[in-house]
Design goal:
With 257 residues, the chain is of the alpha/beta class. It contains eight helices and twelve strands. A hairpin with a 3-residue loop joins strand 1 and strand 2. The structure holds beta-D-glucopyranose.
Length: 257
């Protein structure tokens, strides 16, 4: 006998600055109740972060599927890049680490991929066909690439080499705006250089901008050449939590996405 698919799941968004979690309605694609947030500890190692994940889950008092979004490459459960966290994450089996810490199955995926899944299912890219790119602007730059709604995981377009920038996220992430004391126009011009490059490579039908930096979309939108529609994420900063919960639930019921 097959059981009914879950209607709620818990999503965790592990970030370089904050770790957030919330209970998600999988029908609405939105949080039920408040999200909880704890600053990311330093050093940001598996040993310091796993107990925080446990605290977040305990605070929500939830029983059911759990998914977690991670700011790096997650391939077959193993972390092979964690640019904004401690290097001790490399080669760690993150699913196993959190599954052991929590005493229940946890499924992990890249944080931008999680945000993209949420936006393509419920948000600004809902039901969009063709090539859709979601770019997250935060501590780093995350990317999610979809082709006719199917995710190409771990694209890591924030680490492209462009002009004289060896790793473009250092120049264009939301964190660069404060660090380099940029006006919104100056920041918009940097972002435009980056998005124009992505446009040339992928010819996307839609670009969605997510992450904390997309909250002020209206302040820099004038500087962007709209080769294709460019829109802010609809679920804003909750998209990582929603996408992580979706992945946790789909693994629990063994289905897509
Ligand atoms: C990481 C990506 C991540 C992005 C946003 C980048 O530094 O390499 O995996 O999606 O930051 O957190």
């Amino acid at each position: 006998m097959t059981s009914a698919p879950p209607t709620t799941a818990l999503g965790i968004d592990i970030g370089g600055t904050g770790m957030k979690a919330g209970i998600v309605s999988l029908e609405q694609g939105d949080l039920i109740g408040d999200r909880v947030r704890i600053p990311t500890p330093h050093p940001a190692t598996p040993d310091t972060m796993a107990p925080i994940v446990v605290q977040l889950v305990e605070a929500l008092r939830f029983t059911g599927p759990i998914g977690a979004a991670f700011p790096g490459i997650v391939q077959n459960c193993i972390i092979s890049l964690a640019a904004n966290l401690d290097d001790s994450w490399l080669n760690v089996d993150a699913d196993a680490l959190l599954t052991e810490a929590l005493g229940q199955d946890v499924v992990m995926l890249n944080d931008a991929d999680a945000a993209g899944l949420a936006e393509i299912s419920f948000g600004a890219a809902k039901d969009q066909k063709g090539v859709v790119l979601l770019i997250t602007l935060g501590t780093g730059i995350g990317s999610a690439l979809f082709i006719d709604g199917v995710l190409v995981p771990n694209t890591e377009l924030g680490h492209l080499h462009l002009d004289n920038h060896h790793d473009i996220e250092g120049w264009v992430a939301a964190s660069a705006r404060g660090r380099d004391d940029l006006t919104w126009d100056e920041y918009g011009l940097r972002l435009n250089r980056y998005l124009s490059h992505l446009n040339r490579i992928f010819s996307p039908t839609l670009i969605v901008l997510g992450g904390g930096g997309s909250k002020r979309f209206d302040r820099f939108a004038d500087q962007l050449d709209h080769h294709c529609p460019i829109v802010p994420a609809k679920l804003r900063n909750n998209s990582g939590i929603v996408g992580a919960a979706m992945r946790g639930a789909s693994e629990a019921s063994d289905g897509a996405p």
